[in-house]
Design a protein that fits this description.
Blueprint lengths: L5 H13 L3 H14 L4 H13 L3 H14 L5 H12 L6 H5 L4 H4 L2 H13 L3 H14 L4 H14 L2 H14 L4 H13 L3 H14 L4 H13 L3 H14 L3 H13 L3 H14 L4 H13 L3 H14 L4 H11 L4 H14 L4 H13 L3 H14 L4 H13 L3 H13 L7 H12 L3
Helix pairs in contact: 1-2, 2-3, 3-4, 4-5, 5-8, 8-9, 8-10, 9-10, 10-11, 11-12, 12-13, 12-14, 13-14, 14-15, 15-16, 16-17, 17-18, 18-19, 18-20, 19-20, 20-21, 20-22, 21-22, 22-23, 22-24, 23-24, 24-25, 25-26
């Protein structure tokens, strides 16, 4: 064998890997690189070996080396992109792909990884377009249909989401994750019969999967069998304790009127898991629902002590301080808006708090941005009417409130909306 012969060295390295003799395999790859500087195939195989040894830093270095030495090559950039996605760094992906030709950017691997990055950043229209192009090329690619369903979900297009999930299950009938997503969608639209059909298959594929048990619980709850729902969720929590399973139990208790028990469960979990920020945020929300404002504020502050840029905590803290400390509330709301300017929830909070601080025109601009995204959301419609009234447009405010309250739906601030309407009609 010639020194550094790539084909022979790769074969020997593959045999070494099979024996889990990773250092031996690495030696063969290094020998190739000594004689063939920046050999693409070798660098990629080294990166795979690094991954097997869980040496992420070295894997990243080899992938970056391959991408730099071979700017025209698709594979190192795709692998590097997947690494960034695994590290929750989707924003780094697009710049990688710009180095490729237009034809290369239309390849299946690039379209898929770009869609994953766009979905991670909630860029749903872009993800939808790219995935549609991918499906044109590969109509039977189940993963592409599943990702497209996620894009439709983000856009609020339930029909499209359902259609793509059904296609995914058709192409990959043993994909329990996709089938579970389809079943949840069917239940969401009220199709209990088809939900049960999907559940029957899931009970065969993965009967003990926590998601399947939670689905069984959800179906039981819809059918009015609260005890069965509670029992199933308790089983999930007992066998697979996690924040999600705990919150499912707490949510079920809450729906059954056992709010105190639900909060106790959340408090116990939060105490036992002091670094679980999701649990703290959920507990803060429960306190807020019980009008225990000081306790909610304390939880949000604990979250911010560990994560100063936690948008949910900033937004929640701003909301609960809006009446007592509007200036401080505005500081938190503005910080949240800087971090997530496209969040309707964040901008809605900011609009209300701007109004509390006498910034009527700013509040009007903020709420209009929200209204463009969420025109049917009761809270948004109420806040828009409230701001219109403050801006002097009482006629528009009255008409909006009459339309909102005339629909008969329930929402958290319904009593306040009713009171505002009475005051405006009385000439207030």
């Amino acid at each position: 064998m010639a020194p550094g012969d790539p084909q022979a060295s790769h074969s020997l390295a593959a045999l070494a890997v099979k024996k889990e003799a990773y250092q031996e395999a690495r030696g063969y790859y290094q020998d190739v690189l000594e004689h063939h500087d920046n050999d693409l195939s070798t660098l990629l195989k080294l990166a795979v070996l690094d991954g097997a040894e869980k040496n992420e830093q070295l894997m990243l270095e080899h992938l970056q080396q391959a991408a730099t030495a071979h700017p025209e090559a698709v594979q190192p950039k795709v692998l590097l992109a997947r690494h960034y996605l695994s590290q929750s760094e989707p924003a780094k992906v697009p710049s990688l792909m710009l180095e490729l030709s237009e034809k290369q950017r239309q390849s299946a691997a690039v379209l898929e990884v770009m869609a994953l990055a766009q979905l991670a950043q909630q860029q749903y229209p872009e993800a939808k377009y790219g995935l549609q192009q991918l499906i044109k090329q590969h109509p039977d690619f189940a993963q592409a249909h599943f990702l497209l369903a996620q894009a439709y979900a983000g856009l609020g297009e339930r029909a499209g989401m359902r259609r793509e999930l059904e296609r995914t299950v058709e192409l990959a009938p043993r994909d329990a994750v996709a089938r579970l997503a389809l079943a949840r969608t069917l239940l969401l639209v009220g199709d209990k019969e088809k939900t049960a059909e999907q559940l029957a298959v899931l009970n065969e594929l993965s009967p003990e999967h926590p998601g399947v048990l939670r689905l069984r619980a959800s179906l039981a709850r819809v059918e009015g069998d609260q005890e069965t729902a509670s029992s199933l969720l308790e089983d999930v929590f007992e066998t697979s304790p996690s924040t999600a399973s705990m919150l499912s139990v707490a949510g079920q208790k809450w729906s059954m009127g056992e709010q105190a028990a639900a909060v106790v469960l959340q408090e116990q979990w939060a105490e036992e898991h002091p670094d679980d920020l999701a649990a703290k945020l959920a507990l803060a929300g429960s306190y807020g629902q019980q009008d225990q404002v000081e306790l909610a504020i304390a939880q949000y502050q604990r979250v911010l002590q560990k994560d100063k840029q936690n948008v949910a905590a900033l937004n929640g803290l701003a909301w609960h301080l809006r009446n007592t400390e509007p200036a401080k509330a505005l500081e938190y709301a503005e910080r949240a808006a800087e971090l997530e300017p496209d969040s309707a929830l964040v901008m809605d909070t900011l609009a209300v708090i701007q109004l509390k601080n006498g910034q009527v025109q700013r509040a009007k601009r903020s709420i209009e941005r929200v209204y463009q995204k969420k025109p049917n959301e009761p809270a948004v419609r109420y806040h828009r009417a409230m701001i219109d009234a403050a801006a002097g447009d009482k006629v528009a405010a009255i008409e909006a409130l009459q339309a909102l309250l005339g629909e008969g739906g329930d929402f958290a601030e319904k009593a306040e909306a009713q009171q505002l309407l009475v005051e405006l009609q009385a000439g207030g």
